[in-house]
Amino acid sequence: MKGLLKIYHPDETLKYHIKNTYCKAVYSNKQHFLEVEIITDDSLDHVDDDSLQYNFPQISLDVFDFPIEDGEIEGKTFNIEDSEDETYTEVDLFDDEEAYLYENELSFDRNEEGELQLYWKGAIDDFYTGSDEPIPFKLKCHFKQDDIEVDEE
Question: Are 33 and 1 in contact (CB under 8 A)?
Answer without folding.
Answer: no
